[in-house]
Amino acid sequence: MIELNLPDEKVLSVLRSREVKSAKNEVEEVRRAISNPIGGGRLEALASKADKICLLVSDYTRATPNRILVPPILERLKEADKRMEDVKILVANGLHKPAPERELEELLGSEVLEEVEVINHDAEDENQLVYVGKTSFGTNVYVNRLILESDLIIATGLIEPHFFAGYSGGRKSILPGVSGRVTIYQNHGFKMIDHPSSRYGILDGNPIHEDMVEAAKLVKRNYMMVNVVIDKHGRIVRAFAGDLFEAHRRGVDFLDSKVKVRAPSRASIVITSNGGYPLDRDLYQTVKGMATGELVAKKNGVVIIFSECLDGIGRGHDLFYKLMAEAKNPDEVLERIRREEPIKDQWEAQVLARILKNVDVIIVTKNIKHSRIEEMQLTPASSPDEALEIAYQMAGKEAEIIAIPEGPYIIPYISS
């Protein structure tokens, strides 16, 4: 918890998501959703026709409550007389580095690890991948072969705002979750990221979302989705199960009304966070919170973001650092990506460069050397007071402020 003392006359608004009640019993809420699927069949019926079952789970960068989500699913599979040796858990890492054993235990719990084989997806391991076709957007879709060797895919996940896919969850378990490097690069390509609808809270007309949907459909397997919406404390509010596409859209519709929050106007200084652990564990993920601040910051304004950055710039994200550090300004970053793509992590650098063309960003963290932050065209600060002092120097002592404590877990907007 970070406390700031801000003068009332300068604060235009403190933007928060609408209050929602978490489920009285989170496990029972997951069971309720599984028993009442939205579209598609019941889990027991789907499982009865499947010899091999693959359960997809989010990786360590997501706040998905896997320890609560997974056991009721396994429980239901056992009730359907499925042997646990015929069930595999595949961690949908996307391009993130596969988690070591200790993090898998933190992610899933020791009991699940003892009962079911857990496999890390590695998007760069060609031996894991199989080609399934091409989308209308030109994306060549390679997925983990375990998906194709399974008769039923159960995709768990978290539905939350996403800075270029609109919302997370659902189809993202396949792309980028268990897709190959080439597939992810194409889906996250320069033109795709640059599209004006590739933004927070937009699905219709968003080419990245629509490409992900097409990729999931190319796999041609039976799917069941079990996704959740959580509150600001990480507790499950509502679970959504059923058809991968229909149930996901129902979850998005539910969340949409809770997280889109109107701001009275733009502000010269926006203070935000990256939503706390685990999303704020590195600078790579922290671009999401910066993109939230950008939505309500004035042109040439300042975004202050608090992020612990436990993992520094990010494990395995050296190219993200280099793309920013080897350029003199944001335009050079964008031009290099346009000229040289595909480059690993180009999408994160592209979004950051777009943000920096509009606002200055001050990042408050003690886990990255200030010199490295400066090399990435960002401004470092070690404390809230230091960050505010720098922001006032940039924007003026009379600058008005908007605060967004939840960071990327809400979608602020300016009414027209």
From the structure above, extract its key features:
2 domains; 2-enoyl-CoA Hydratase, Chain A, domain 1; 416 residues; 16 helices; six-stranded mixed β-sheet; alpha/beta
Q: What does this 3D model show about the protein?
A:
With 416 residues, the protein is of the alpha/beta class. The chain folds into 2 domains: 234 residues, Rossmann fold (3-Layer(aba) Sandwich); 151 residues, 2-enoyl-CoA Hydratase, Chain A, domain 1, CATH 3.90.226. It contains 16 helices and 18 strands. The chain has a 6-stranded parallel beta sheet with strand order 1-17-13-14-15-16. A 6-stranded mixed beta sheet has the order 4-3-2-7-10-11, sandwiched between helices. Helix 1 packs across helix 3 and helix 11 runs parallel beside helix 14. The protein is globular. It starts with 10 loop residues before the first strand and ends with a strand.
